[in-house]
């Protein structure tokens, strides 16, 4: 009986199931990418512009390209350590993995150009370069962790640059997104430190150190900074359209903006704190288990939890940037991503 599952053809001699391609690129793990871009866009005040969605598509393509390229480069190692992966198992030819990586890289750069023009390409090109350099050369060197963290930092900065458009200098946009970009980079650094021990297990000091860094990261992400937002809200409050409904609507006009700004600040604080706690509840808990029993299996689970745990961290950073509604949406996606990760491993 013919296999009725969908297949994708690459040349006349091979046919690859779409399910195998999804496993090759770790498809569900790409749900950890949009939050990077949204956190950067929120930091400059425009989290949901059309350009932002274009950059999200670009970053997802580059992420998937990196996963496919990783399996191309690691075919020999995976044949011993992970023989069930698509390339060593023979379900996806090695040359096909390389073709997928190249095609997705070109698509990512094209989407970046369409969404952000020269500015978009100016961020996407070094991002693609880091992805390819990491997989082909840097992975096994001390620079590997910095390369991967740098790629995530560029994801966040790409969102800021695209959302900002031409209204502000690139330097100004990058400065405004520096905090979320830095925290995402620090988180990625802990993942890379753990990922080196997924097979043979880790010294106890490694998960202990990454747990401490993750706790500080969560604390910084959940802290909503005090700024001039209340005063700006007061200035807007003199117009009826800026006034919130309910009890606040009964306040005198000069106080409506202040009350609305305070309410918004509390919402940002609540969602930011919730995201930070969810981050520690997923990634932190997995690191505690790895600290108690630093076997390769537990370390691998901590890495997987860290990839998925990036989403509540992104939610906290997006709320910090002043977009609590977008942050709440990221929080809703997190359980879905974790469920999909049980079917297709994110590592």
Automatic annotation (TrEMBL):
Q: What keywords appear on the UniProt entry?
A: Membrane, Transferase, Transmembrane, Transmembrane helix
**Where is this protein primarily located?**
membrane
Q: CDD domains annotated for this entry?
A: PT_UbiA_1 (cd13964)
Membrane topology reported for the UniProt record: Multi-pass membrane protein
Q: Which InterPro entries match?
A: Prenyltransferase_related, UbiA_prenyltransferase, UbiA_sf
Cell compartments where the protein resides: Membrane
One GO MF annotation is: transferase activity, transferring alkyl or aryl (other than methyl) groups
Transmembrane segments annotated in the record for this chain: none
Q: Sorted alphabetically, which Pfam families does this protein's record hold?
A: UbiA
PANTHER family found in the cross-reference section: CHLOROPHYLL SYNTHASE (PTHR42723), CHLOROPHYLL SYNTHASE, CHLOROPLASTIC (PTHR42723:SF1)
Question: Could you tell me what this protein is called?
Answer: Prenyltransferase
């Amino acid at each position: 009986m013919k296999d009725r599952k969908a297949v994708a053809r690459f040349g006349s001699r091979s046919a690859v199931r779409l399910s195998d391609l999804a496993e090759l690129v770790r498809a569900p793990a790409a749900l950890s990418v949009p939050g990077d871009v949204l956190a950067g866009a929120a930091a400059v005040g425009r989290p949901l512009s059309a350009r932002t969605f274009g950059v999200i598509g670009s970053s997802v393509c580059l992420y998937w390209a990196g996963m496919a390229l990783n399996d191309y480069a690691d075919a020999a190692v995976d044949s011993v350590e992970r023989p069930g992966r698509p390339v060593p198992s023979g379900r996806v030819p090695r040359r096909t993995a390389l073709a997928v990586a190249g095609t997705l890289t070109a698509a990512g750069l094209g989407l970046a150009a369409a969404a952000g023009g020269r500015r978009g390409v100016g961020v996407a090109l070094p991002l693609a370069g880091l992805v390819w350099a990491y997989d082909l050369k840097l992975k096994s060197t001390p620079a590997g962790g910095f390369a991967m963290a740098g790629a995530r930092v560029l994801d966040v900065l790409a969102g800021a640059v695209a959302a900002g458009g031409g209204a502000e200098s690139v330097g100004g946009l990058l400065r405004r997104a520096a905090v979320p970009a830095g925290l995402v980079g620090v988180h990625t650094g802990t993942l890379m430190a753990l990922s080196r021990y997924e097979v043979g297990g880790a010294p106890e000091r490694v998960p202990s150190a990454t747990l401490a860094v993750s706790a500080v990261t969560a604390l910084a992400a959940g802290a909503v900074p005090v700024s001039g937002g209340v005063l700006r809200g007061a200035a807007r409050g003199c117009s009826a359209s800026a006034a919130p409904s309910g009890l606040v609507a009964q306040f005198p006009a000069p106080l409506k903006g202040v009350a609305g700004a305070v309410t918004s600040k509390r919402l940002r604080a609540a969602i930011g704190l919730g995201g930070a706690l969810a981050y520690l509840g997923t990634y932190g808990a997995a690191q505690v288990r790895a600290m108690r029993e630093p076997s390769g299996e537990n370390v691998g689970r901590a890495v997987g939890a860290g990839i998925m745990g990036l989403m509540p961290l992104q939610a906290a950073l997006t709320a910090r940037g002043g977009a609590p509604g977008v942050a709440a949406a990221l929080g809703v996606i997190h359980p879905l991503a974790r469920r999909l990760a049980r079917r297709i491993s994110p590592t």
